[in-house]
Amino acid sequence: MRRALAAWERFYGADPLHLLALVGCFALVAAVVRQVADDPSWWWMLVWFVGAIVAHDLVSYPLYALADRSLVLGRWAWRRRTGATAPRVGVVDHLRLPAMGSLLLLVVFWPSISRAGEPVLLFAAGRTTEDYLDRWLWVTAGLFLLSAVVYAVRLGRAAGTGRP
Amino acid sequence: MLAAVLLVGLPIVVVTGLLSYIAYGPQFGQAFPGDVAWFRLPSFDWPTRPSWLYRLSQGLHVGLGLALVPVVLAKLWSVVPKFFAWPPVRSPAQALERLSLVALVGGLLFEIVTGTMNIQYDYAWGFDFYTAHYWGAWVFIAGFVVHVAIKLPTMVRSLRGGSLRRYLAQSAAETEPEPPDSHGLVAVAPSPPTTSRRTLLGAVAGGSALLGITALATTVDALRPLAVLSPRGQSYGDGPNDFQVNRTAFGAGIPPDIGDTWTLRLTGGAAPVTLTRGQLLALPGHTATLPIACVEGWSTTQTWTGVRLRDLAALAGVPVPATALVQSAERAGPFARVTLTRGQVLDPDALLALRVNGADLSLDHGFPARVIVPALPGVHNTKWVAAVDFRVA
After folding, report:
1. Which residue of A has its CA nearest to B73?
2. Structural domain tally of chain B?
3. Do B69 and A35 touch (CB under 8 A)?
4. Cβ B142 vs Cβ B99: under 8 Å
5. d(Cα B172, Cα B188) in Å, to the nearest integer?
6. Which of A9, A29, A54, A72 to mutate to test the interface with B (most CBs of B within 10 A)?
7. Per-residue tens of pLDDT for chain B, all 393 residues
8. Which residues of B fall within a CB distance of 8 Å from A108?
9. For this UniProt entry, which segments traverse the membrane (chain A) (predicted)?
10. Burial class (CB in 10 A: 0-12, 13-18, 19+), B55
11. Chain B interface test: which of A19, A32, A120 (most B C-beta within 10 Å)
């Protein structure tokens, strides 16, 4: 029995319960697919399902990586050229974090900011989102301002104590 | 760490979502999608107490769902490099596990995308929102349960490792990489860090707070000015009728002069009863302060005045109905009629509202009369009510 189990784990790579759990998962997904297959718009559901994965894993993620790598490379080049050393209070996060917050809001509220939802909103609720781009810009400005204030405070404290 | 947050948060979002399906009344065929075969949820009469029940459950579904978006993104960011690992498959077990991640990650992203678009009136998909969001949830559940079953020991080990506190105390310059683990999840040769772990977690928490506030601001009056980017949180002014409208009379095809000829028809008893608005106002009235909470997460609490539904049932000759079918003057639309349970009709605060905050209902809020029932999903509080049929069975 024990030898059979060991042979199974050598072949499969995990214990049998692992396979049981995964089979359960696939059975549930298959049951959902069977239900959805009756829907005339199943094709669009599949497109959006796969599209969400592709957009995240093959578009967004490489963009994050690219932004991060160019930041590191840019900083290295800057320090090499100017001979600067690491500052006592790092500035990178004070630019990167408000930018991330702003981008997060842009992505989540894209249907409103881009006014994609506006026709239905106007018809159903009698409202528009015409100034939502301005609103997003104001929020973005606020985030950068907040970050700048925190940076100034940290700089002041670093100067006061002589250490970061 | 992020996994622990998601392990607690995502089940709350899932359960409140499924509760919302039950609140819509699948036993009356008014939850969407209607035919779900083996995926039928245990159905029960949705309670009317506490009156803020749906406000809380649906507010959590949408608000917590939004607040978890940065956590999901950060979690995926930390594991996506594995996606590009080489060789892609080392054993059958790993191959199947990776396949199950399609259900987990695809289901989660699909629910986030459809949900955030739906709360912003963007229906650009080519499919029905309710149907897709329901089935997407089940795909996600399949992936989530098996992922938790397989990975829970890893998470517990990593949290118990005792290094969390030490890691969080490190600045960017001091940050040290994690020791290699048996799953190969830890980066083999990480680049020098450009920030500290605590800043990363702080950034995620900040993003969650940012989105959480925009969601909270669509339900809490004091915060409403902060809902700057949510189309469900717009300001309507401060008059008695100045609160959120999801569907205008124009959008529902209700003529502006509906009040001129309007009567309410009550059926189910020996003979139909017809009442004018004047006759309704002359009946014993009742005032209740109740929230109206929408499936899209927003809610607002107002003070409603009208006639109790149970008084109307008695007037129709069916004092204890099994159900009541409320029909709007709106003809088309999936929510032009709704079936209420016995408990919803007999609740002492369940009203056919004629006035709100001391003024007549505005046309957009359902003038001449609308239903308002504690803890009922917002869209079932039918506006422009034309008839109510009280049914014994």
Report:
1. A56
2. 2
3. no
4. no
5. 19
6. A29
7. 899 999 999 999 999 999 999 999 999 999 999 999 999 999 899 999 999 999 999 999 999 999 999 999 999 998 888 878 878 888 999 999 999 999 999 999 999 999 999 999 999 999 999 999 999 999 999 999 999 999 998 888 888 876 777 778 888 777 877 777 766 677 767 777 778 888 899 999 999 999 999 999 999 988 998 999 998 888 787 899 999 999 999 999 999 999 999 999 999 999 999 999 999 999 999 999 999 999 999 999 999 999 999 999 999 999 999 999 999 999 888 899 999 999 999 999 999 999 999 999 999 999 999 999 999 999 999 999 999 999 997
8. 66, 69, 116, 211
9. 12-36, 42-66, 97-116, 136-153
10. buried
11. A32
Domain, as residue range, for B188: 2-226
Size of interface A-B (CB pairs under 8 A): 202
Same-domain pairing of B301 and B181: no
Is B192 inside a domain boundary? yes
Residue listed under structure tokens 């000759």: B317
Sketch the domain layout of chain A as residue ranges: 1-54, 83-164
Question: Which two structure tokens, joined as six digits, stand for A4?
Answer: 């059979």
Query: Residue A32: which of B127, B139, B248 has the nearest Cβ?
Result: B139
User: CA of B152 to nearest chain A CA: how many angstroms apart?
Assistant: 13
User: Residue with structure tokens 């978890």?
Assistant: B68
Tokens matching residue B278? 């004047």
- Mark yes or no for CB contact A112/B231 under 8 Å: yes
Contacts of A135 in chain B (CB under 8 A): 228-229
Same domain, B264 and B377: yes
Please name the member of B131, B141, B191 whose beta carbon is closest to the beta carbon of A72: B191
Contact present, B247 and A124 (Cβ < 8 Å): yes
Smallest CA-to-CA distance from B120 within A76, A9, A159, A127 is with: A127
Q: Cβ contacts (< 8 Å) between A56 and chain B: which residues?
A: 76, 105, 109
Amino acid (1-letter code) at residue A95: L
